[in-house]
Amino acid sequence: MTLTPTELTSAVPGGIGTSPQRPDGNLKVRGEFAYASDLWHEDMIWGATLRSPHPYARITSVDITEALKVPGVHAVLTHSDVPGRNLYGLEHKDQPVLAVDVVRYQGEPVALVGADHPETALRAMKKIVVTYDVLEPVVDMETAVDDTPLHPGGNLVRHVPIRRGSQDVTAEVVVSGRYEVGMQDQAFLGPESGLAVPATDGSIDLYIATQWLHVDRDQVAAALGLPLEQVRLTLSGVGGAFGGREDLSMQVHACLLALHTGKPVKMVYNREESFYGHVHRHPAVLYYEHGADRTGKLVYVRSKMYLDGGAYASSTPAVVANAATLGVGPYEVDNVTVDAYGVYTNNPPCGAMRGFGAVQAGFAYESQMDKLAEALGMSPVDVRIRNAMSEGSTMPTGQVVDSAAPVAQLLKLVQDKPLPAGTSTDIRELPGGVSNTTHGEGVVRGVGYAVGIKNICFSEGYDDYSTARVRVSMVNGELAAAVHTAACEVGQGLVTIMQQIVRTELGIERVTVLPMDTTIGNGGSTSASRQTYVTGGAVKAACALVKARLDGRADIGDEVIDETTEWRHRATEAIDPETGQGNAHVQYGFAAHRAVVDVDVDLGLVRVVALDCAQDVGKALNPQAVVGQIQGGSAQGLGLAVMEEIQTSGGKVRNPSFTDYLIPTVLDMPPMSIDVLELADPHAPYGIRGVGEPPTISSTPAIVAAIRAATGLALTRVPVRPEHLTGT
Amino acid sequence: MRVNVTVNGEQRQADDVWEGESLLFVLRERLGLPGSKNACEQGECGSCTVYLDDVPVCACLVAAGQAQDREVRTVEGLAEGDRLDPVQEAFVEAGAVQCGFCTPGLVVQAHDLLDRVPNPSDPEIREALAGNLCRCTGYEKVLDAVRLAASRR
Fold first, then answer.
1. Nearest residue of A to residue B135 by CA position?
2. Do A658 and B137 touch (CB under 8 A)?
3. Is A667 in contact with B127 (Cβ distance < 8 A)?
């Protein structure tokens, strides 16, 4: 192989609390970092996937005869070629590796082709004859439970009720609303890709871009009918993830083709296929009623919310639990009634995306807080501070928040930041930009605020741990360390953090990060803002074992000190299935935003002028990376606020391309001023609090609040589109 | 077909190229230069930006045959040995690299901007980089990197 994942070594100062350069930075700027789609192997062939054009259909026949005759084709596979279990899934094993007799979403894999050139594979795919009996798709999340059952157990994936305090209390001031959140895509830039290399003993190596090597391995092995030790996964370079790589995409498919042909198989999705090839953020419909007294103090919150899981369960059960348990936001409310439903439909499957259930609820409850402020004649910040939770507050689940929860302080920080100058006269800084659509006429400005809450790490009693190995030996007369985990670096900078922890714990500057693979124990998922917390904790714990054996020595001769350990965060509990009560979460993270927008009310164009954020991160292990996470998370929230949506019609995706699915460009992003609080969590390693997700939650509602302030419109749906603003 | 092209100053030849292949595919899969990236392959993201006769282009939109007898400079051709170009150095230092998949395209585009406009204003930087999508950073540190590189060149 010409390109494989490599060791990353840097020998620089830079323990925790500093911002040393990332060890893969030079490779990345030189174009020499081996991403999954860059892998190459002598004699490799290319895999391609034939997908269903229908959201819901019965397959009556599949004929591969003509496809097999195409010169250069090595294999054409269908479900009957899957030697093991043809069903996989993160929480429910409900998704076929290859469809058998029914397809439940547009884009569902039906057959595979292995060929000597990607174009050959595409041509052969066109010669596979699949006949479908097209069925009426189920597409409405609110009525899906009573519609045609798509799975044996019906269309309800999970219902999470929360019952706290009085269920029939009344209040002096009541506001209610119905809110919608569109289907957002992770839109990571590195497409789903990997290289499967078969060994002569029937085992297989898979080089892959993923968020969780071990759970991928377990699902791949089950589908291949191989014991776990015969399926070895190594993390290749990952071009972003944001939740979209938690589920399998081409992992099993590439391995099937490789084992079938005896050749290395490379699979690379193009952008259109990527839109069909991974789960998205759940679209949602949320009904809320907030009751408060005349001082603005919340008396109750009642909510019913629907999250569309699409054709397969993916992580829907956990997403629904987040939406429910975090459903009133970072506020103290004594009386809570929440019913959250995750359902099956024939829409694209939905699962994890940054914010994971908290984003959908966040847009709705923050819209409600603004509505309440208006009904009371209070300022949006004051009504939030009036109800802000703090350390010691009780969640709707009954869980007491036992570390910093500086909600009021975060709001004040963003409120006190200087406001940007008035609307510009430079067209490059006006809505529409160089399209030259306005010189300021019809442009109005608004300011909006929001704050959000996110659980950090895995919840509901899950045994959430990571494994780390630290090895110390002499290199050129000095101590050097190597750190090995299976925790996935997806761009966030875990490789840097692990080096920093080793330097701080052992005082060794030269630290090598070994390739992440399944030869070591589980590293857990790169999700739920958890890797610095959990794998960071594991690396710290392994360092403590190494340190004891080092015993202060600066020279250990030929000795090699090698320690491996597992580390877990404190346990959580399942929630009561009737009342939603229980200590479900490990830690809570908070961020607040203030958005300033200019809106061209004639054309419905929005320009976000400023998007400032304050967030508590417990302890900033790498301040530069922390700010980078907050800015990047805020940008994804801006995308959901004003542009990003996978639009479906009858279950079919209408915009599977970067031409039609827009993500923010540098022209869409305003300057972002970031305040980072470091209020240590005594339960977490170094006091850290997960960083990645909270800014994605509050960014969206702050921007929409600013657009409402500018226009006076109700705006109950995101993304806000021009027609919502012009009424045309 | 056979394609002869100068890449990063070196005369290169690719054989058995299918006429539908892009310059990006030939660079990545036939010439061992996968630095230019394949994020959208439809000219929307800028991750495959290379110089074609000194003009930045999306390599995914150039048919391989169009590069015949022309000069291509890719991200792999910017550093001089171990010495990074100031733009590359600034991207690492400023924290403009997270997942890094957009980085090669942004680096080439920023390199071209600073060749043309040594001290660009923020609106000029934004305009120059408007065709390069980044999903990780929110662009703030990308702007920091370009400003830093400009101050050093």
1. A188
2. no
3. yes
- Within 10 angstroms of residue A168's Cβ, the number of other Cβ atoms is 7
- CATH code for the domain in which residue B146 is found: 1.10.150.120
- The 3-state DSSP composition of chain A as helix, strand, coil percent (nearest 5) reads 25, 30, 45
Q: What tokens appear for A109 in the block?
A: 């894999």
- Same domain as B8, residue B47: yes
Answer yes or no: do B54 and B111 share one domain.
no
Amino acid at position A162, single letter: I
Helix (H, G, I), strand (E, B) or coil at B100: coil
pLDDT in tens, A421-472: 998 999 999 999 999 999 999 999 999 999 999 999 999 999 999 999 999 9
B7, B72: one domain: yes
Query: Beta strands A284-292 and A298-308: pairing type?
Result: antiparallel
* Domain end position, chosen among B23, B47, B76: B76
A48/A125 Cα distance (integer angstroms) = 8
Paired tokens of B97: 């690299």
The 10s digit of each residue's pLDDT in A127-179 is 999 999 999 999 999 999 999 999 999 999 999 999 999 999 999 999 999 99
Are A26 and B142 in contact (CB < 8 Å)?
Answer: no
Q: In angstroms, how far is CA A656 from the centroid of its own chain?
A: 19
Distance from CA of A642 to the nearest CA of B (A): 15
B56 and B22 within one domain: yes
Q: Classify residue A555 by burial, with Cβ atoms within 10 Å: 0-12, 13-18, 19+.
A: exposed
Cβ(A671)–Cβ(A567) below 8 Å: no
Domain A280-459+577-726 has CATH 3.30.1490.190: no
Which are the contacts of B93, defined by CB distance < 8 A and separation ≥ 6? A21, B145, B148
User: For the ranges A1-10, A52-61, A487-496, A508-517, which has the lowest average pLDDT?
Assistant: A1-10
Q: Strand, helix or coil at A664?
A: coil
